[in-house]
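TICKET: design request
STATUS: open
ATTACHED STRUCTURE:
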């Protein structure tokens, strides 16, 4: 299991030290949520902040684009240091083309899926993606309650991946904590994104270590 703390929940006033803490921790990736205030009802940060994170990060940068028209921005995020770029299936009119674009930039291509979106919509693109990010909360804000239906979706997605021979990883984003981490991994999840649970704890490094050992 890979653990990807979400930098959105960190202390922005001390962003460099937060990234350096993650470098020293047992975290595998650093998850970066990009919100535009259009696709989701919130605005986070953009390309300059992503570039600033990459300057200090020593770990895989997992960029999650919660934005409209992502094809207009993926090249700049690739240049800013992204290793994986995920776009929302709900925001892409030409998803297959978007995935090819990301891969052609030398990044892993991911598909993010909102809670209401059916796994069946991935059937024709699952072999073209490296990662499927299942949203286990409604996107736009951190600290939300985990949606229990997610476990069923993970199992359905795992079945589709095995049936098609896809090598896609399953990522869970939203409400991940010590209580559900093992159950998610047991259901088939490969990557867990944890934000508030990590950065709101008294000892984020210890919290990261605990999640890694739980699952």
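STATUS: resolved
RESOLUTION: sequence designed for all positions
ATTACHED SEQUENCE:
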């Amino acid at each position: 299991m890979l653990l990807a703390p979400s930098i959105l929940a960190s202390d922005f006033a001390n962003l460099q030290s937060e990234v350096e803490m993650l470098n020293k921790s047992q975290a595998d990736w650093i998850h970066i949520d990009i919100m535009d205030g259009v696709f989701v009802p919130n605005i986070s940060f953009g390309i300059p902040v992503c570039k600033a994170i990459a300057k200090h990060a020593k770990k895989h940068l997992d960029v999650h684009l919660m934005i409209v028209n992502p094809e207009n921005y993926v090249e700049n995020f690739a240049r800013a240091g992204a290793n994986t770029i995920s776009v929302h299936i709900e925001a892409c009119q030409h998803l297959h083309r978007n995935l090819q674009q990301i891969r052609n930039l030398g990044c892993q291509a991911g598909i993010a899926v909102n809670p209401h979106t059916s796994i069946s919509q991935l059937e024709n693109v699952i072999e073209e993606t490296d990662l499927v990010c299942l949203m286990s909360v409604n996107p736009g804000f951190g600290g939300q309650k985990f949606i229990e239906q997610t476990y069923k979706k993970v199992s359905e997605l795992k079945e589709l991946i095995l049936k098609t021979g896809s090598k896609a990883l399953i990522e869970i984003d939203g409400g991940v904590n010590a209580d559900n981490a093992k159950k998610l991994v047991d259901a088939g999840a490969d990557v867990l994104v944890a934000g508030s649970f990590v950065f709101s704890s008294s000892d984020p490094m210890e919290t990261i270590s605990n999640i890694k050992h739980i699952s």
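CLOSING REMARK: The radius of gyration is 16 Å. The beta strands are 2-5, 29-35, 60-66, 84-88, 108-113, 131-135, 169-173, 191-194.
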